[in-house]
Amino acid sequence: MSPPEDAIAVVGMAGRFPGAPDVPTLWRNLLDGVDAVHDYTEAELRALGVGERLLADPAHVRAGGRLPGATAFDADFFGMTADEAAAMDPQQRLFLEQSWAALEDAGCDPAAFDGLIGVFSGSSVNRHFLYRQFTGDPDEPLVPGFAPDYAAAQTAYRLGLTGPAMAVQTACSSSLTAVCVAAQHLLDYRCDLALAGGVSVTEPRFRHTPGGLVSPDGRCRAFDAAGQGGAYGSGVAVLALRRLRDAAESRDRILAVLRGWAVGNDGARRAGFAAPGLDGQAGVVAEALADAGLTPGAIGFVEAHGSGTAVGDAIEVAALVQAFSADPLPPGTVALGSIKTNLGNLDAAAGAASLIKAVLAVRHGVVPANLHFERAAPDVEFGPFSVPVKNVAWETETRRAGVSSFGLGGTNAHVIVEQAAGGPPRPASTGWHVLPVSARTPEALRQARTRLADCLEAAPRTDLDDVAHTLTAGRRAFAHRTAIVCRDLAEAVARLRGLPYGAPYDAPEDLTRAAEGWAAGGEPAWPPADGRVVSLPAYPFQRQEV
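The line above is the sequence of Ketosynthase family 3 (KS3) domain-containing protein; the predicted structure tokens follow.
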């Protein structure tokens, strides 16, 4: 069954996660079963400013999803002074940076894009500001723009985006709700490309309480008998979205299709404000399936909210079973996972991180193992669901997944993700190609060349037409430039590294002159490559502590 005309294409993804500086590394870590939750040493905790009373508290959880360099930033790249950067919430800096990376991954230079680009962000509480206020000068004035409300607006301002810029704040479901809001704005033609996601920067200042959200060792044991919550962590995840038919017409690389989505609230039908509601969760899953025009039997994997708490997991699975009851399935038919077992709870970024995992799963045909699952929680009735303890090959005609994210206070979001249709086969590229690379500084240019060479060397099946098209049509040209002329990937790698390659260099003179002219500041004067956007390394930001 082909996706409906009002489906949304995922055309780019970017992020930084505990243990993973980018999306490709995140996927490798998921497949390798990496537990990225960090156990902090006492020295690390003291360096973070954790106080003596909390350090001495036996309930203090000394673990969390750590994001190295979370407070470092390339202010020059975004045209900011050091003082402006220092006053900005680190979460806003991270979201801004990864929004640019997501646009690059989509092959979109916003200055050249013919249409409106919207931004939809979810952010956690600005803990950086709070810690400064509580521990610094009490007479320090409030800084305008410090609140989570401003992450989308800062991104729109710094990147020159003129579509809707909207903060979406629904606690842990913020970023997945932001994706739903962005998708609807695209369908309503309020924008033509949308950036949607979330960010959270936090520190290990949490205590374990029985029945609470934070486990004693910081590990999330979703759906397991030993589940006692998890640890909070830092991370950022951003997706670039377009209307499916526009993406197809523009020959964008389509990573996956968002076929349906829904957002709702539990209302008062639950034990308390902080308690999850079974009917509300079941309702939002059923509504998303209906929006997608699918029955539950079409879903092979559900990336759950998966908080790892006894009550939360039992209610979530019961809600899924209720939503799937309209299409009875045999036990073990649908895989069930939670990225929180790998990363911890990324709070406002959690839903977008889960969505990225689901996109990668339907794209690559693998459901990653769920960590820390040894014995099923006794209060969980799994019905058609099963928790994979090893990577599972996902072999079906069309792979589809559901993604859930639930916010404290009852705002629930669910998205249906579908495998993108494969494009027609193309002959391998031949002949000569120009690969232009640029950056804002000489050091960034050197790093960009090295990263591109590493990427091409690691992916020997990459088509040079796609590489040339992405670099020419999908990346902004900065002041410091170089351009190489090559015939194949091996030659491209060698010339990017500045190494000799094979026979005497006999590139066509007109291409060589065009490459030299562009490197000197001119416009591209070589024939356009007949390629599509392909994932290449993002800009090498020159981050410094601010």
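Note on the example: The chain has a mean pLDDT of 94. The radius of gyration is 24 Å.
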